[in-house]
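pasting for ref. prot 1 ->
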Amino acid sequence: MSTKLDFLAEHPLFSELDDEDLEDLAVLFEELEFKEGAVVVYQRDAADCLFIVKSGRLYAQTVERGVVTQTRHYMPGDYFGLAWLFAPNIQPATILAKGHDGRSVRLLVLKSRPFLRYLSTHRHVIDDLAPIYDATDNIIAGFPEEIHGQALKVKAKRDRRSSTMNILPDELIELIIRRSGWYLFVRLLAPMVGLLLVTVLPFAFLASQPPDTILYNLQFWCPGVLSLFFIVWGIFRFFDWTNDYFIITSRRVIHREFNLRAFRVDIKIARIDQIQSVAVDKPSLIANLFNYGTARITTASQYGVIYFDNINKPQQVRQILERLTKGVRTLDASREQTLVRQSIEEYFQFESPYEQIREDGEETAVDHPQHKLSLWYRFYHRYQWRIEEDGVVTYRKHFLVALVAIFWPLVIGGVLTLLSYLILRFQILTGQILILIMGLLFFFLLIWIIWRIENWRNDLYQLDGRFIIDIDRTPFGFGESRKQAPLQNIQNVKAFTPGLIHTIFNYGYVEVETAGVDSNIMFEDIPFPGIVQSDIFQQIEEFKQRQRQAEEARRHKAFAVLLDVYKQEEEQGRLPRRTPPSLDEEEWEEFQ
């Protein structure tokens, strides 16, 4: 039987990918072998995987109110669930494994989250997944048009300054907008009117003055100065408008506000499942005439109400959020069904319907130890501002902080170099004495610089899935202090860039507010504070999800125990009848 890589290389969905990209993608696929008659998926379960039939066949049936309404067979090479890679949904049918002559069925399964992360790191692959048509307009390779459109949303995250928008790898952009152009026009009206007045009025009122007077000369330089003022004012308002974003993704709503006066960026975030209501306000006749207004999003997050103010078509925001929140509720119900089934199967120790097939060397396909031993990897790992390993995300301060820390040692080193040149030129000291003195001084400067850089490198902030940690280490192991807070105690996370230099180099502060007095944690001078804020929110969300799943698992286990006890009592015939027996015709006539 062909390997996963060979099978995917011949499959129309991925036939246009080059060898290296295809190898990276093949690692993400799981090969599962299902027994004859085993259920592959259940109707109304959560669906977030692509299934490709490698051998055997599948039988799908949709049941509505006890009646089979639709059936379908999947043969080798057929697939289903491609759209679920981008937008998780609900299984529309129960699918059974149907082998040939009693043989099992093999499927290749690709989960949504790893695939989206793959696309975020292999952005060029999206173009290779575009549909290719034959002469009769049938797709012979690539993704269908509508599915490729979803893939383009992934690419849009990178093409539209994702470091500014703070979009996570497994998120899809549903909407990204600025404030209305009419709002910008109103904001520019005052500078434009002022510019018009200062270019017309001086000539109208000052040109009639006698020549060689102060008032007469004002018509030449006064309009220029005032015009420059109004032009700068208009440019200021334009850039203040163009750097504000309102974003809706498949998981969150984000309001990014850039205050140009203070050079400060504030980001407000709420998860889709935290949205309680969306109201649309069009407060004036002009707003109704030009169809712009404010979408007021009430959430259960720490921000309370998030405003998408002065945007075009605010009702579009409400429609998108209603669709997303409805989808979240539906998916939650389907996940609940899946968890109940898994808990019961685990309690009663059901035999697994499938076996995972591993190819030779597959366990080491993801990891490359020789890559980690490379000089570049060691340097990257030692000084990179963000490192993610084994579920732990580690951050360092911006490299500009290290440059500031070694500024004075470098200045002193430059002064000493110049002084050495002057001493040698004027022969104040002999060369050997100079080399000895300057060697000692430069040695101490080198120790100073290394100390400062190591002090910068050892100041870390970490997220490990349970805690948020602030680590302050003294270089070379002379001391260490830690401050940590459990993720469940985090009440608010604020990200902001406080000034011009911070905004230019895109670094700032992330303030983590936790329950308790004097227990807040501040990420200082951190690069891309919006991304760090998104990471923290993602870890909080995943932690709460694990807590919910653990609590639901305990509740489901208690339910399984109840079923077990009930079954035991029923088998022993100890359960009393809870309803009266039905009457036959003779008993009914007698009763009458």
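and prot 2 ->
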Amino acid sequence: MSNREAMLEKLVDLDAEHAKAVAGGGERSVDRHHGRGKLLPRERIELLVDEGSAFLELSPLAGWGSDFAVGASVVTGIGVIEGVECMITANDPTVKGGASNPWTVKKIFRASQIAEENGLPTVSLVESGGADLPTQKEIFIPGGKLFRDITRASARKEPTIALVFGNSTAGGAYVPGMSDYTVMVREQAKVFLGGPPLVKMATGEESDDESLGGAEMHARTSGLADYLAEDEHDAIRIGRRIVARLNWRKGGVEARSARASTTEYAEPDVDPEGLLDLIPTDLKEPFDPREVIRRICDGVSETNGAVFDEFKPLYGPSLVTGWARLHGRPIGILANAQGVLFSQEAQKATQFVQLANQTDTPLLFLHNTTGYMVGKEYEQGGIIKHGAMMINAISNSTVPHLSVIMGASYGAGNYGMNGRAFDPRFLFTWPSAKSAVMGPAQLAGVLEIVAQQSAESKGQPFDAEGFKAIKEVVEAQIEEQSMPQFLSGMLYDDGVIDPRDTRTILAICLSVIENKPIVGTDRFGVFRP
């Protein structure tokens, strides 16, 4: 099977998983929701964002492989509303009434983190029954952070807007309660801490939905609703007008120098379609990341010059570093070439990260690494301290980082190349990606060696044939757990993407990070000599 055929096959599987998220609670639930005259979350988002603009959906596979619906009963992503980039969250009421499960909470945490790091206003499309009660022990205590994040966003002057389309009960009531602006739909929105049954149990009081928490009551009596919408379309119209009146300015654009103008850019010199041909079916087989760079970065132009100005090309050749532009925006790139990181590569990366911080240039990490080199020669040569130096530089770098895992991302190489634990602003994976402490065969082999040594130390015979079955189970388990759908389901990335969409997605991300000034640092931890 060719590289292209293998990638296309993976993309078919990926589309099928994304379709599960779009399906929400299933055809019956969707039909019932539509039958009530209500829109689905993605339909609401489509009407909310500017016509013809892109919506970058985040974490669509959250909860994959768990007992919960793929997508975690909420849609999150970045969309442009009245010319303003906003973080948008939308409960999916077709999945258990939009109730929040443990993956919902984690997904919204990630959306809040992105909004905070990039200084984005947040628009919440609310229709939620609160916590999924059977899993409350995993939601209740950590879930309070959701409300803390809303109020802290307001304090940072990052506006929060809630459009309430249906039930917003218990903990869900605090989303409109803590937002800067709240819009409620007449005869649909119901916002209360406790519904009529709970009130009856707690106080003995008889009440109905409307008098207890209806939209009109909140608009006329409690004052919780700032705007009373006639229907869902009217709520979306009001939401757009609120954003239009925010007087929003992108702080990073104002701070950017004239030489970093994004008014002109050239399309890539090489067709991005060719990205499907690049990744080998066997990730042990290396490929040239320069071919990826040529297909995602701006092509040659009068303002751009070369596509890629490589830095230190003859030193540490298994890590490619250099400068490029993407949709007119300057970036520094670190990309794995031969997989293994040696001392030279680590030292080269350290210097390059310092240079990017000196010039306030965002960094893009393209992963395909098996990790740092091991062995007596390399240990004596200082691979630990040089790897630590690289990780030190990346940990303390303050320019925005973007990461794309193209192939392997194993061991400490994942850390050195700015994996999830190092908080890149955005991290996406290709369907060809794999990430784990090491490859399945290597891990199973290590376990076999350890078991054999343990048996010998006890003076017992080692049953190699019997351990073969254990190795096969371990290899299968690690293989499954290193796959992109599994990792994306755990929110270790922001989405598994079609390689051909990489340029567009990175361009959106680079635009988003400009909502805050881009300022590099000259402060790093101690570099061990």
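The radius of gyration is 25 Å.
The chain has a mean pLDDT of 91.
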